[in-house]
Amino acid sequence: MKKNTLCALGVLLFGARCFSQASASSQELLVQFVKGDIIQKTAAVKRSGNDSSIAKNALDFVVQNATLLEGDRDLAALAVAGILSYPAAEYGSSPQNVTELFKQVFYGIDDATVRISVFDKLALFYVAKPFEEIVNFVNEYLLQKIASGAPLDDTIKKSVEVLGKMGNGSSFTGLYSILQTRIWQEIHPAVTETLVAIADKSLNSIIDATTNADLTELKLLFQVYEKNSKLSSTLRSEIANQMLNSAIIISGNSSLSRDLAEFQLACAKILAENQWTRAADLGRNYFNVAKVAYEVKFLSGAQFAESIACVEVLSSRTAVRPLTEYMDQLNKAQESGNIPDKTVVLAIINALGELGDKSAFDCLLYVTYLDYPEEVTSAARNALTRLKW
Fold first, then answer.
1. What values do phi and psi take at 181, rounded to 5?
2. In the predicted model, what is the mean pLDDT of residues 70-79?
3. Is 370 exposed, middle or buried (0-12, 13-18, 19+ CB in 10 A)?
4. What is the pTM of this model?
């Protein structure tokens, strides 16, 4: 009985000693940090695990001595250790205070490794618990670098990378200006990917950018958003809709060009491919612009036929009247011996057949009485059978 009691007492004493050593270990690390030089402080931080008090003490020490020890590698190493070991729980309870502390470290230590560590850690924090001040901080830094014309460095690359994970509408301006000003061309693919990654959160900014854009700017935006398969069809259509509208305005305000006409067609094709029927009125307006471009030979017959097909998909019945009126023009041209392009004639006939509106009856019937090729008159008869009465 006495032997069992002694064993139990031994176990209790051993456990108490272990608990005392564990507690002392944490206390010892804090003492080591307080008493040690910078290298010893860094060692204490590395050994501290998720002890938020030591990590915070480390970063506070860095901020307090950043000016005095400017350029000191050991201080930079301490900063990195403090950043990497900073616990997420501390950020979760006070994102404002932690973000402010990290910003002070970032601007206090002019060291790429320190700054990249700050960006990476804040991005991890943001994913767990979004805090917009973090995004604003990265946006502001990138805008500063752009404004100063700074040479490309790893910190700039990292800022673009993390914005792909947490950027928003306010991130668009800085990222897009990198492409506009053609600086840092080495990272243009990464910038494009980031712009696409945040497109759903920056749609209003994208649309604003297209509103007063010239053709060069519209084509740049087209390259970013319409050439990337990662973007959803809905977003591509929203953006293409605005681009086509802006491109039509440009053609009304200045002389039409082949480049502009072909860009308009590219936008219309995206809308048609996605059956974006919200562009009904825009599609009808586009037909008039495309018709002028074809008549001045900025679009070929085949291209104008593509335009007609797009208008039919987008505009539905709202396109019937302009299409029937144009079919009447083509019939008059054929009758007078000014033979119209067969590709265009067939495109109009097929579009009217698809729309099926009975108001197209007269012009389609007239086709069958004129000296069109058999292929055309056959298409007109087929279209007549599809009209809805």
1. -85, -10
2. 96
3. middle
4. 0.85
